[in-house]
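Protein: Alanine racemase
Species: Virgibacillus necropolis
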Amino acid sequence: MHATSRVEINLAKIAHNAEKLVQLYGSKGIELMGVTKTVCGDSVIAEIFVNNGIHMLADSKLVNLKKMRDAGVSAQFVLLRSPALSEVDAVVQYADISMNTELSVIKKLAETANLSNSVHQIILMVEMGDLREGIMPANLEGFIQKVMELSGVAIVGIGANFACFGGVRPSKDNMSELSKLADIIQTRFSLPLVHVTGGNSANYNWFTAADSIGNINNLRLGESIYLGRETLDRKAIPGLYTDAFTFVSEVIESKIKPSVPYGETGQNAFGNRLQFRDRGLIRRAIASFGSQDVLVAGLTPELDIEILGSSSDHTILDAKEVDLKVGDEVRFALDYGALLSVMTSVYITKKYSNIL
Ligand SMILES: *Cc1c(COP(=O)(O)O)cnc(C)c1O
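Structure follows.
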């Protein structure tokens, strides 16, 4: 069926961003995991990562790992989120490595792996202040002691996450703390940590400023590959494309109308009472998408027009000086939230361009 809105995915630009980031981080010995949750495990994009030097693909959803495996993508697959107890069987089946913070889950992973005489690899996430997932550093050694008593799982790394919940910045201090923890663990347990994974797209400023990156040898990147930005201030990374994705929709109504609703007013569709500025008569265009399709607040029009608001399935534009007509296409840049939402939406067509 024909969808009236689409996201255009410029594969050459994604390939370029991936290649440049592999070079940049590789220059100081950091290997990348390509985070695929943002694009719902899109195997065409995953393939581009692999062809540009990213050989670990990380996703928070097992269905996405399965999708990439089934599509024949050849990489190491990492489950980016601590497994739910109820999904442990599928974790052992579809993930080579999973990130973990709970002993009960690790015990079940070990039991499950033992049933098939395999060893499941785990990376332990350490809490470094952002207060999403992680084992408290003071408890880490005791935790590792218990994990090492289990057969069926092998600790292959430690990691930390930043700027996801608390907005905490990766810094010289917290990165060297993680690095020191890696030293302590390797020495005390004679445990070679293959991956010391220091964060995500928010680590760019730390990385570029760092004289020494210590033992950090891995980062997990999503947004900076897709949107060419670091994520603390959303600054563009020099030499990368910020427009690999474009949202495109179609005008379904275009009329000169007042700028302020008239009649008695109550709540709108989303339970809000909006305030309107009177700009007199304006050209109001309606585009054929709404809040059910995309996080509208994350869109920026390419033309000099303004998004006035949206309901579930209509987005109202002030066309300003642009003579938008029914049937015209309107194009928008996306931020991270908008990108996530369009990639997840079943109502938006995904169209690849500049195919390599
Ligand atoms: C989503 C996620 C990432 C990727 O974050 P970006 O900001 O897109 O680079 C990295 N690590 C973990 C644990 C994540 O959940």
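Remarks: The chain has a mean pLDDT of 96.
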